[in-house]
Write a structure and sequence with these properties.
single chain; alpha/beta; Aspartate Aminotransferase, domain 2; eight-stranded mixed sheet; three-stranded antiparallel sheet; 13 helices; binds pyridoxal-5'-phosphate
Length: 380
């Protein structure tokens, strides 16, 4: 019989802590919306869009209901649907692939680089050269900046451009990550950001935002998110309902103001974990040279994951696995979604080995030290 594990003293994520850290400002912003009597697509959404566009350095930002919709609306805005294939990865949140299928396009899943867990450009090149039989032409590529680590987006854009495909960046885990001096999301034709509560910029419910510099695309997507309306009650395009509400927008504007400091805190926690791992049996996560990682997750690769997880759990430390089952192995997609020519062997290996440590800006120094002590004590 196993003894009952001790209570969790270090949770893996804690969106409530982010609210409490800015409670007064968020409560005031929400009270302002409630009193205004205007709850959908008003001044708060406009203010958030303007602030997010400025922070991101993009010409246009459009608030939507969630990150999945942000991706789907970009695809729709580009006219991509049935008859188009979209290349992405299998080692991602299922949302990336769900968005592609939502618009009727065909996903094709590319293997990852084992060190950074992001799309392997050589595999992308190979799928353009030798697409699986029956695949419609690949019109778009969606690299995911997974865990806050930039994918090799410039290489991916060069490969896609040779084949006449556009690149849409999935920035749902990478708010503020940089390639050189340029933010992730500034490379492709458009970028999608989830604002789910645990994301680096998180709402108090669902939310999403997308950015682009293309004015015509922005105008189409702004219409598509609200029934394709040109003006109230007159649809030019067949659209959907995917709006960011005023309460979320007001709270997000407050949280955006603290995002850079929150990112710096994530990076400091990551540095502390790195130091604690030292030259022990578990290696710190790799960083792609010339890029800035924003540590949505701090992910270890474990030979024996269950033993690391048990060691930490025995010290009151919670962990999580992002993601335990690659999309091409999930019941809804198994045997149905197409893969690149070499398959997804690295994706399969990663799914069996990755382990996410506690990572959120409000971790106290004492909690970080609890994790560090446990990492130092792990001798495999
Ligand atoms: C969270 C996430 C999404 C989807 O976001 P929702 O807001 O939950 O719809 C898409 N892609 C990635 C990589 C994500 O992490």
């Amino acid at each position: 019989m196993n003894a009952t594990p001790p209570p969790v003293i270090v949770p893996q994520a804690d969106p409530g802590a982010a609210y409490r850290a800015q409670k007064e400002a968020i409560d005031a912003a929400i009270a302002r919306v409630l009193a205004s009597g205007w709850y959908i697509l008003g001044r708060e959404c406009q203010a958030f869009e303007a602030a997010f566009a400025a922070w991101q350095g993009a010409r246009h930002a459009i608030g939507v209901a969630n990150g999945t919709d942000a991706l789907a609306l970009i695809l729709r805005g580009l006219g991509l649907g049935p008859g188009a294939a979209v290349a992405t990865v299998s080692h991602t949140a299922v949302a990336t692939v769900a968005a592609i299928e939502m618009v009727g396009a065909t996903p094709v899943l590319i293997d990852i680089d084992p060190d950074t867990y992001t799309m392997d450009p050589a595999e992308l090149d190979a799928v353009f050269d030798a697409p699986p039989p029956g695949l419609p032409p690949i019109r778009a590529v969606i690299p995911v900046h997974l865990y806050g680590q930039p994918a090799p987006v410039e290489e991916i854009i060069a490969i896609a451009a040779r084949a006449g495909a556009v690149v849409i960046e999935d920035c749902s885990q990478s708010h503020g990550a940089m390639v050189g001096e340029r933010k992730c999301g500034r490379f492709g034709i458009a970028a999608a950001f989830s604002l789910y509560p645990t994301k680096n910029l998180g709402a108090l419910g669902d939310g999403g935002v997308l950015t682009t510099d293309d004015a015509a695309l922005a105008q189409r997507i702004a219409a598509l998110r609200q029934y394709g309306w040109r003006e109230r009650y007159v649809s030019d395009l067949a659209g959907v309902n995917s709006r960011l509400d005023e309460v979320q927008a007001a709270a997000l504007t407050v949280k955006l103001g603290a995002l850079d400091a929150a990112t710096a805190r994530r990076q400091a926690i990551a540095a502390a974990y790195d130091a604690a791992l030292g030259d022990g049996p578990l290696a710190p996560p790799a960083r792609r040279p010339g890029t800035t990682h924003v540590f949505h997750q701090y992910v270890l690769r474990c030979g024996d994951r269950a033993s690391v997880q048990a060691h930490l759990r025995g010290r009151g430390i919670a962990t999580n696995i992002h993601y335990p089952v690659p999309i091409h192995r999930q019941p809804a997609y198994r045997g149905r979604v197409l893969l690149g020519p070499a398959g997804c062997a690295e994706t399969d290996r990663a799914a069996g080995a990755v382990l996410s440590l506690p990572m959120f800006p409000e971790l106290t120094d004492a909690q970080v030290e609890t994790v560090c002590a446990a990492l130092r004590a792990f001798r495999g």
